[in-house]
Amino acid sequence: MFRIMIVEDDEKIRRIVADTLSKWKYEVTQVSSFDQVMDDFTASQPHLVLLDVNLPVYDGFYWCQQIRAVSKVPIIFLSSRNQNMDVIMAINMGADDFVQKPFDLGVLVAKVSALLRRNYTYQDESLQMAHRQLTFHLSNSSVEYEGQTAELSRNEFIILQTMMRNIGKIVSRDSLMQVLWSDEQFIDDNTLTVNVNRLRRKIALLGLEDFIVTRKGMGYIIE
User: Which of 7, 29, 76, 161 is the 20 to 30 Å CA partner of 67?
Assistant: First the structure.
């Protein structure tokens, strides 16, 4: 059974989300001490975290950083804030998705289910993919080039795997969004751009420039 940790200070929202997830057979942990989130995280070892942005003591961005320092567990932000900068900040800090309040519970459950399925299914793979002397290790979500390595986030992993399965072919932005988020209509277009650019930077820092090329108005390609 997958464990979900909810970090939400609105008791009503927290209870409704917890009840809904429990009905879908998820094990739920509800955080109530908002200055001890990491203690609860360590104790419960969740498979996914639902994290509000506006919290007492420290905000959700702070706790996202703390979690990312020790774990790659999927994180979905829940927030009434809808500025593009909030979404970009969340993704840059390592979040996997951003859901704006008020949200449809069915949509939230679908996102949780898809994220768990993709994250933990991909972790079971033990293959390698290679192109232009870059080795992509699927078993531990990392890339290697000329002796240097970089770890990838879940979204970066999926983008690179999709691209490397289609070397020499243009992969549209819509296709990538569909792979990443089955209900892509709820995702700001900037979110994909942030993820692709972050992946490009990691590969470039290894010494391999222009590995993923943008084809304006069409999508991306690895040649």
Answer: 161
